[in-house]
Structure formats: C-alpha cells, structure tokens
Amino acid sequence: MEIERCPSTLAKGYPTYSPLARKILFDGKEISPFLDLDSPAIQPIDIKESVGRISLSGVQPKMGMVLGNDNKLRYNLVNERSTYIAKPKPQSYHLMRTEDCPANENLTMQMAFQVYGIETAANGLIFYKSGEIAYLTRRFDVNGAEKLQQEDFASLMGLSKDRNGDWYKYENASYEDCALLIRKHVKAWMVDVLRFFRIVVFNFLTLNDDAHLKNFSLIYKDGEWRLTPAYDLLNTSLHLYEPRIFALSLGLFREGMPTGDVNSISRKDFEEFGRRIGLPKQLIKRELDKFEQPYPLAKELIENSFLTKEAKHSYWLSFDYRRKMLTF
User: Fold this and answer.
1) How many CB atoms lie within 10 A of CB 155?
2) Integer Cα distance of 97 and 100 in angstroms
3) Would you call 139 helix, strand, or coil by DSSP?
4) Count of alpha carbons within 13 angstroms of residue 42, beta-carbon side
C-alpha cells in the first residue's frame, strides 16, 4: 500500500508520518504506519438494548499498543501497560460507513488542533497487512512509568449505570453543569473553562453528538487537576442513523433547552452558554467570531483525509452548514 499524505497531520507529500507527526506521536522516532499485523477479528456487535441512543465511542473496539525495541508498533502483552490505543473500524449493525470511522476521528481531531488551536490527544492512522485502517492515539495519562490519575465527568458527578440507568452519561447533566465541575476542581478554572467552551462549540460544528460525560475528563498532573486534551472527536452524523444535536439530553443549559430542530440553535445560545459558565463577553465574541470564519485549511484537511469520496462530501456540507449557523 502506498500513501501520498501524512497519516496523522494529513499534509501532502509524505509517504509515511511527517517529521511533525513523528515528533508528536513518537518523540521523533521513525515509525512506520504499516504494521506487520493482521486486523483484529472483531465480532459484529448487535446492540439491541441501545436502539435510539448508540454510543459510537462505546462500540468502537480498542486495542492497547506499545512501541517494541525494534521501533515497531505491536499489541501490549499481559501486565504490560499500553502507551497507545488503536481503534479499528467497528462492526455494529447499527452504524453506517464503518470503514470511515478511523479516518473520521483522525480528521476531526486534526481539524480541532490545526484549525482551531484546541489541544488534542496525539493521533494518526495505522494500516494492517490487509490495508484496513485503524485510528491510533497516544495515551496522555501515561508519563514514562507513571500512570496519571484521570477522572471522567460521569465519575466526578457520582453517576454510574448501576445507580442511574443505561443512559447515565447522557441524561443527568448539561454542558453548563460540566463547566461548573471544572470551576469546582480546577485552580486555574478560567483557562480550562475556555478550553471546554471551545470543544463544545467545535463539537456542534463537526456534528459530534457523542460528546457525553465520559468523553470529558480531568487529569491530576504537577500537583493540580486540569482538563485533559480533547479526545474521541468525530462527526457522528456520518455513522448514526438518528444523530442528535447535542449528546447531553439537557443540551447547553442546566434547565434544558429545545433541541428537536437544529435550526432552533443559534449563536445567541452559545453566547448565553459562555456567559453562564463565567467567560467575559468580549472573550465569547472573539471565540465565536473565530469559529464562524470560513478557514480554507478546514476544507483542505477534509480533502486530504483518508475518508471515502462520499464521506468527504457529506462531512464538508454538514460542517459548512453548521459553521454558517453561528452567524445567525
């Protein structure tokens, strides 16, 4: 298999990872994206109990990986801590375009980082012997031999499936509640509330309706809690038959909001959201002005991505429409 753009940054002219990608993903080591491994045999998942609300991140298979002494990626052994996570395409009957899932996540994460300056987990793509693609991300909770403490928002809110039901990570909080959680636990809360605001707006632009409570976390590092880099970002409308506007049923606000019609959401909602979570008016305006701009790099990344042609077209149309909604 031959490629002509970096399977991480999506920059053209690279038959392997670019120098920038190697630096971020592998500390500068020359690692091949082509694995001498077979694609893992994943049995189809028939999620009958999840009809009407499917967690895409919940059905994606995840495989722990490490760099071997030969500078090749391999699956981690028993009792060996993984430093990377690989996500092959899911096999659920309830998803569309499953072959595009890895490329979708890589593209969306790169758009967040390159276009909007959102801190994201280091990521790229790998290729099995069959040519099948998998998404690869570097674990940010592992620092050498140390495993950093990380708590997702569902855990911090004391929510679980046993206590709160199957949809505990969707139906028990709003994004306003999430921001208040950051203000409670993070010393430099203004910085991380702004980072959180950017991710929420970006998820709206890229139609990520799987940004539930377990897809946001705080990590304890250097003696304090901080919001983790963004992870599990992808345009879920390419894969779900019944996508929603927001993952959390209450939407942006603690008292809930009407989300039956996407056209009912406007820039004013995000302005009010920013005000409620403690951001200054001028800062909110600056951020929303940035998100409504038509950045040529966004379209370039979509075109350079490893999505199929049909998926690229759908991604661009939906993203561009949502962007324009922030001008209303």
Assistant:
1) 14
2) 6
3) coil
4) 20
